[in-house]
Amino acid sequence: MKGGKTLITDCAGILSRWTEHFHSVLSHATTFDPSVLSELPTWDTNYELMLPPDRNKVQRTTSQMPSGKAPGSDGLPPELFKSGCPDIIDKLVALYQSICSSGSVEFKDALIAHIFKRKGDRSVCGDHHRISLLSIPGKILARVILNRLTQHISENNILPKSQCSFWSGRSIMDMIFTARQLQEKCHEQLQAVHLVNSRRGCGVCMTYPGKRRLLCIRP
Predict the structure, then answer these.
(1) What confidence score (pLDDT) does residue 156 get?
(2) What's the farthest any 2 CA atoms get from each other in the chain?
(3) Which of 104, 98, 103, 109 is nearest to 74 (CA)?
(4) CA of 150: how far to CAs of 139, 147, 158, in Å?
(5) Between 207 and which of 24, 59, 140, 192 could a Cys-Cys bridge form, CB atoms 3.0 to 4.6 Å apart?
(6) Pairing status of strand 201-208 against strand 211-218
(7) Could you give the C-alpha distances from 44 to 49, 150, 194, in angstroms and in order?
(8) pLDDT (0 to 100) of residue 128
């Protein structure tokens, strides 16, 4: 349905309406402020991060992929790669090495699917969830890069421990619980407590007689 008034019934018109809808919801001007890049610390270049992944890394990463996920436009499910077939692993290694040497990524396209929200009108595009189905080989390569970056960040103490969402075994819920506990304790002791939120991060500011203390929750 277009404009909430006209019901489209022909296939070409339906595809055109979906294209128009997804373009309107997915194509937005960026709100990123490039000035924040000047505030980031500089680190020495680690050229090992640029090396192509070896066979052991690819095989281990493939086993980490969740099962039962929908494939991308190529139709290859994750179970095919998790079977551990040596020929498939060798093909992936050769593909990733080719990508690293050429600098050309072949997994840019996504298959966009829509799922009805179970409420509203099926003929209205806005009453559908939208998901992007990505190629499983592309997801495996992304996980290889993520594992490599996570190890590098952990070994060099680049990311503070307060960034719980990015550390294994920790959660932002831990920090929310901590902030809640501080709020309750300050209320019991009749002390002022304020939530500080800025571009640099957020935190809890506790006011004591004659001084203040800022507890960083998530920088």
Answers:
(1) 82
(2) 73
(3) 109
(4) 16, 5, 10
(5) 192
(6) antiparallel
(7) 12, 16, 38
(8) 86
Q: What residue spans of the chain are helical by DSSP H?
A: 11-26, 55-64, 78-82, 86-102, 136-156, 172-188
Task: Write out pLDDT tens, residues 89-132.
Answer: 999 999 999 988 888 887 778 888 888 888 888 888 888 888 88
User: What is the rounded distance in angstroms from the CA atom of residue 29 to the CA atom of residue 24?
Assistant: 11
Spans of the chain below 50 pLDDT: 199, 208-211, 214, 216-219
Alpha carbons 140 and 63: distance in angstroms, whole number: 9
Neighbours of 139 (CB within 10 A): 20
pLDDT for the residue numbered 89: 92
107 near 135, Cβ under 8 Å? yes
Q: Identify which of 156, 160, 191, 200 has the alpha carbon closest to the alpha carbon of residue 33.
A: 200
Other CB atoms within 10 Å distance of the CB of residue 80: 13
CA distance 204 to 43: 30
Q: Which residues face 206 on adjacent strands?
A: 193, 213
